[in-house]
Specification:
- The protein has 234 residues and is an alpha+beta fold.
- The strands form two sheets. Strands 1, 2, 3, 4, 5, 8, 9 and 10 form an eight-stranded mixed β-sheet that branches.
- The two termini are 14 Å apart.
- It has two domains: 113 residues, 2-Layer Sandwich (Alpha-Beta Plaits); 115 residues, Alpha-Beta Plaits (2-Layer Sandwich).
- The protein contains six helices and ten strands.
């Protein structure tokens, strides 16, 4: 399995999760990477983004897992020498990078065993805020949130079938206080570190609502960075 780290910015931040997967699927095909496909009537490429990126959010720390055929995997895992291992990695890096659109920057490619899984533990979001709104009211809001023992938000839960989402959407109360590790205010904006667990996390739109921020108050795109992963082998 290949593990690809990359950055997303510019207009590509508006791509959905499914669209981002298709970008890499096409890039790998054009680069000649031998990707594995699932079995069955409708085969799909075996690639995944373990931490879906909210639409509209830029990211400095994205991760994609790509299952490749044994011939490609063996080249990466078992190069005869460290120099050959390095050259193979550089070659794959260049070939995939050349096929990616502007706004998607490949950072690294590494190899992992096929049974390796990546679970996100935390992520940091940076909210650039216009100077006029970096005021005492915002400081007081942050102080109140951090002092709270619980923070309940109303979260919309959609049906799995997209055709039924509108009529079957439901609202439920979720306590998101445990997902807020820290909130820092500086002269440029707000840095929020979020806990991520199997139970979920806090959503970007929920953070904005809690901080009483909207698009008019932001000085630029929201950015995700510093994702921490728990790596395990099954």
């Amino acid at each position: 399995m290949l593990v690809i780290k990359f950055k997303i910015g510019g207009s590509l931040r508006f791509l959905s999760h499914a669209q981002m997967l298709r970008v890499f699927q096409r890039a790998c095909v054009r680069a000649g990477i031998s990707v594995q496909y699932s079995q069955g009537f409708n085969p799909r490429p075996k690639l995944s983004l373990p931490l879906p990126r909210p639409v509209g959010v830029e990211s400095d720390d994205e991760l994609l897992c790509l299952r490749v055929h044994k011939s490609t995997s063996a080249q990466v895992h078992k190069g005869i020498s460290s120099q050959e291992h390095k050259s193979i990695s550089v070659q794959e890096h260049k070939s995939i990078s050349a096929q990616l659109p502007e706004g998607c920057e490949l950072l690294s490619i590494s190899a992992a065993k096929a049974n390796t899984s990546f679970q996100p533990c935390s992520a940091t979001y940076i909210f650039a805020v216009k100077k006029d709104y970096l005021n005492d009211r915002l400081r007081a809001t942050i102080k109140r949130l951090l002092a709270s023992e619980s923070i309940n938000v109303r979260r919309r839960i959609d049906a799995k079938n997209s055709k039924l989402k509108t009529q079957n959407s439901k609202l439920k109360n979720v306590d998101v206080r445990g997902f807020l590790k820290s909130i820092e205010l500086n002269d440029r904006g707000i840095i929020v570190e979020c806990e991520i667990s199997p139970a979920g996390s806090i959503r970007v739109e929920e953070i904005l609502n809690l901080l009483e921020l909207d698009a008019e108050k932001l000085a630029g795109p929201i950015r995700r960075t510093n994702v921490q992963w728990r790596v395990s082998e099954s």
